[in-house]
Design brief:
Chain lengths: 50, 177
């Protein structure tokens, strides 16, 4: 990283954080999908409790 | 307080996910009646045998007037009584449990049937058992030295193969099969 020019460094700093957004989406969607599977795919088919 | 915009976005995503989960649970609780068992109804644990509802001949599976299937059981160290019951699958079942001595729990593996049985209270829950088969009914609250032997059996049979048990009228003749 030390070999980056100042221009390249500025470009990286000011560009959109694509990796962060990708990570956010992957983690968020995976977590929501896992929860929905457990709720609708496991919990409710075993017989709802009331 | 300064919060980095990216951190804010992470927080919005996390809150959105939590909101989605809570929303689904709330909708099912409010509109479909799916919630944790909650029933506040007291009973004298020391005289269950004298009560109209939980005397020996009244335990087990019964079909009420409007076709509602009700199961009444007594939990006591170390067993659930009756020891074996047969219920229909895919049918709303109302379970009512009482304890004759100490705190017990009841859990039916591979189903959502689980609740505490507190002395002095009637534990009630309504559920539907979708899959026919043989299931154990286990105590899941430590109740004494014989806790790990406290269990009984439930046979879940297809609705079309199930017939309502005849109600016994003779006193002291219940077999507790």
């Amino acid at each position: 990283m030390n070999e980056l020019s100042e221009e390249e460094r500025q470009k990286i700093i000011h560009s959109a954080p694509v990796g962060t957004w990708a990570l956010t989406l992957i983690v968020g969607l995976s977590m929501a999908a896992a929860w929905l599977f457990l709720y609708y795919g496991v919990f409710l088919p075993r017989g709802a409790i009331g | 307080m300064h919060i980095d915009p990216l951190e804010k976005k992470w927080a919005y995503v996390a809150l959105g996910i939590a909101g989605l989960f809570v929303g689904i649970i709330m909708i099912n609780a409010l509109f479909h009646g799916i919630h944790a068992p909650s029933n506040v109804e007291t009973i004298d644990s020391a005289s269950l045998h004298l009560s109209e509802e939980f005397n020996e001949d009244n335990l087990g599976v019964q079909v009420e007037n409007k076709g509602k299937v009700t199961v009444r059981m007594v939990a006591g160290r170390y067993g659930f009584f009756p020891k074996h019951i047969t219920v229909p699958a895919d049918t709303p079942l109302t379970f009512r449990w009482v304890s004759m001595d100490v705190l017990h729990g009841v859990h039916m593996p591979m189903t959502n049937l689980s609740t505490m049985i507190v002395p002095g209270y009637v534990s009630e829950l309504t559920t539907t058992l979708p899959k026919p088969g043989e299931y154990p009914l286990l105590c899941n609250e430590y109740c004494g030295m014989g806790h790990d032997h406290m269990w009984s059996n439930i046979s879940v049979v297809a609705k079309e193969h199930w017939s309502a048990p005849e109600k016994t009228s003779s006193k002291g003749d219940a077999t507790h099969e």
